[in-house]
Amino acid sequence: MSNNKIVQITNVSFYHDQNQVIRHINLEIEQNGIYGLWGRNGAGKTTLMKLLTGLIKPDAGNIKVFGERPFENRNVLQNICFIQENHPLNPQWRIYNVLTLGKYFYKNWDESKANIWLERFSLHPKAKVKSLSKGMRTALSIVIGMASNCPLTIFDEPTNGLDAATREIFYEGILKEYENIDNRTFVMSTHHISEWQRMIGNIIVLNEGEILLNDEIDHIQSEAVYLSGSIDDIKPFIVIEEILEEKTMGNMGSFMVERGSITQKMDRSKVTIESVPLQDYLLRKTQKKKVVHL
């Protein structure tokens, strides 16, 4: 394994009840980064995270995390923290019981960091888990993930249930963590990429069990544009089969396309070219062409 690659996935497939959920995936994740994992429901995100964290093993291909196969491998698993959506917590425990368990489960547990995050989220150590709102339970799960100090920390939808102010506390805190710690990699699975854009370096896009995109987020963001103007000035100069979204009214139209679909012959002085929000691009990229006539 290369010194800076902590995850190497080679031609991995996984089946669930004879349904191929993961299809021949190849992926590398480098040390010291914040990665985004995006996909629609059923794209395979949860299955991929379970494969990475050794909860299940692939039906084909190889997975190496920190140079070893993660399935039932204590050497690997003690360096991974996986915070699932609706992370299972005993409702009868108090918060300090949860943190005590974390201290014994994670070899790099940082109690002072746990206390800092409790204070950030205004969580009282003596509060019972069953008394916490959905947002407070989510915040407690974040405390576990951050205080684990694991070199590979994976969050599945970590902001579900958090209000805007609490989400901002999390975003600011994770940026500080990333800036001050050299040996830590985060993978953030989310349906809502827009709020994460300023933090994520690379984004992995899953679609129907395959990796559709895997690149720096700024590069992916710049791939798509809106072209607006006369249909006669636009449509003859783009690849029709590659239009991601089309809206027309009379002879005027707006077309979402990738830059590679635009031919050199287009007179760009007659066309308005605008950037596409990343979330919109990914939604269109992972569905069939949608045509709207107004």
TrEMBL record:
InterPro entries: AAA+_ATPase, ABC_transporter-like_ATP-bd, ABC_transporter-like_CS, ABC_Transporter_VariousFunc, P-loop_NTPase. Keywords: ATP-binding, Nucleotide-binding, Transport. The keyword Cell membrane does not apply. GO terms for molecular function: ATP binding; ATP hydrolysis activity. Residues 7-233 form the ABC transporter domain. It comes from the Bacteria. This is ABC-2 type transport system ATP-binding protein.
